[in-house]
Description:
Elements: H1 3-33, H2 47-60, E1 70-73, H3 81-87, E2 92-95, H4 99-111, E3 118-121, E4 134-137, H5 143-149, E5 159-165, H6 168-175, E6 179-187, E7 195-204
Parallel strand pairs: 1-2, 1-4, 2-3, 4-5
Antiparallel strand pairs: 5-7, 6-7
Helix pairs in contact: 1-2, 2-3
Amino acid sequence: MTEAEAKAWIASRFGDAGKAAMAQFAAIVVEENARQNLIAPSTVESIWTRHIVDSAQLIGLAVGAPPGDWIDIGSGAGFPGLVIAALTDRSVWLVEPRKRRAEFLVEVAKALEIADRTHVICDRIEKIARPAALISARAVGPLTELFGWARDCTTPDTRWILPKGRSAREEVAIAEQGWHGVFHVEHSLTDPDSLIVLASGVSRR
């Protein structure tokens, strides 16, 4: 997927307003990246593909999920959490332990005019006890650790949407040794070699 194709993909699914919001967000991230390392410098020129569409594709995987909050663990630069908040009407909670990045997330939510449904928590997910309908985490930790860390944020109906790159199937096999649940793997739109784990009904064995 090229950058032009990525922009067209966003516009076709989220309209001109969605594309404009993502353009504004991308510009903010690139500017701030000169002050703090939000994204790898090698991905700046492909930010629409590598970060925006890579995040926005998770929204389609949430179709049919129960109503309620979406928690994004380790939001960092706002991928996928701020993308989800900007392109949906869900209440999104961004959990980011690094103070400087958490402050950045707060400011971007204000700039994008989504602060009313975007909540930033500067802490570790293990300290949070807030039931979520959906939980995402991008490049944060192995499945087994994520399930344990966020145990106080889950209900029997919570759905997990977890981009895991090429290690997805191996991580699922390891997780199934200690966790019950329904696990499914989807291919990423932005990289055919990258995989996304979908999980539901997750509980300890």
